[in-house]
Amino acid sequence: MAIIGIDLGTTNSLAAVWRNGKSELIPNAAGEYLTPSVVSVDEDGSILVGAAAKDRLISHPERTAAAFKRAMGTSRRYELGGKVFTAEDLSSFILRRLREDAEAYLGEVVDEAVVSVPAYFAEAQRAATKRAGALAGLTVERLVNEPSAAAVAGHIGEGDEDKVCLVFDFGGGTLDVSLVERFDNVVSVTAVSGDNYLGGRDFDELIARGFCQDCELNFDSLSRQRQETLIRQAETCKMALTSQEPVIMAVSDEEISASLALTHEWVIRKSSTLFQRMLAPVRKVFLDAGVGADELDELVMVGGSSHMPSVRRYIAKALGREPAAEARPDTAIAIGAGICSGMKARAEDLKELVLTDVCPFTLGIAILNHAEQERDLMSPIIERNSVLPTSKEGVYCTAHDGQQSIDVKVYQGEQRYCRDNTCLGQLEIAVPPAPRGQQSIRVRFTYDINGLLEVTVAGKDGQNARLVLQGSGMTEAEVEERLKELETLKMHPREQEVPRTLVARGERLYAMTVGQMRDQVAYMLDWYQMQLSSQESLRIAKASRRVEQFFDQAEAYLGLEDLPPLNLDPLMDDEDGEEES
Fold first, then answer.
1. Residue-wise pLDDT tens digits, 279-308
2. Which residues contact 342 (CB under 8 A, 6 or more apart)?
3. Among 320, 327, 385, 516, whose Cα sits 20 to 30 Å from the Cα of 475?
4. Long-range contact set of residues 375-378: C-beta below 8 Å, sequence gap at least 24
5. What is the pTM of this model?
């Protein structure tokens, strides 16, 4: 049985598989790699998927649905031909078609998939994607963020030098922006942001509306069929603008006859609000990562909508850097998902590659707001952009005299007030009555890349409580097995093998040396302890390498007098020196 990688897109979807040492795209029954993410219900009740359904967007718009990825995890319903579907129902039809095409191409059963999702998808949207996979007959244990898949596909892990890369993933319905760092064989996402309601589809509609405006037509008064015709034609003209300019957009029927020459400048002018929205996530990832645009080594633009010259020019000008020429906008995410499927299958030739991702939203609990007691405050425990998997804890005290229990409500979001965030669940733990502030509990969050969140609460008197939150797709036994694997995260990095070995080595060196060298060894040990306190895996890995290099040099210096003088200021030229503060 095979595991495949799937790029479940707003406009198009495609699949890939890892075999023969590479990620291989899987063609559909028509021999194409791209399958339109469109579903239609025929007059006889049969379900049409892909290109056949896309053709019916104009002829049978009331029976056809597209761009439903934007509604994943919501209560929105689609009525098509007298039948009602959710967004995950419609997505399952796409996933089933991709699974069937893969089985026909590979000649074997496909029962599992790694599916890509926008990095900014919340837990409800990720859970809905897993449920769609289950409806399609696929086990989906692993979701991979789309920019992360694109980063892996771009071979950002090759070479000896570190690299900082911005992945600008602009698809048909969503925009994801990620800052990705390569360190040895690790591809690590350090910050993500995005807009789940901004994509190429928005450009298509604005172009159609701009066309109507300049031709003195009222877009909103047109029938849905004519609106879809204009949007489809706007999409065609938008794509044509990637290779020629100007492009003539024309419509002519019994009621309407108009034409207009479109240029890149015209598109930018009509879509100025969309371009402004693009920069907000870019600014946010730089702010969260604490780096500037001048520190970028590479700009990678993926997603079908990044083909637009106006988009490429705008982002390149904003960042002062041209996009990487080798990036494949349409297929990069699927190729990356195929690589991730090989990692999931533990392919021998991918054993050295490690992909780390981040938590896109902050996770925390509600605490009492003394100023406005009806509006609880959010107390973050795992901040957004924490490297996954992670485990962190906070200490909280009782808020009232004689309080006999503490209600721990778990929230996801960035807003100050809990009611503006998403409640994921709650649990209660008993505490002995005492004056307020004298009883405390420790709340620990353990969160992994598959969306599994374990909340444990421990009281001073030995009382304990636990809450496990997970989207779907895992049995109770699988959840417990994964939580057992995550137990090591609950050990502080200082207690893990590599840091303990390095600290012991440094203490031995301290005892062997005197004078200035002893001071430098002490300085290095203090700096390393500071890095361990961050509990951030990538930061600790980089610090461990730096410390090991210094200790190697120090030991060589002590043993061989003809070596050049030891660098007694090891962090002076360290590009990560800012981590000292």
1. 999 999 999 888 888 889 989 999 888 988
2. 3, 18, 23, 349, 350
3. 385
4. 375/417, 375/418, 375/419, 376/409, 376/417, 376/418, 376/419, 377/416, 377/417, 377/418, 378/411, 378/413, 378/415, 378/416, 378/417, 378/418, 378/421
5. 0.74
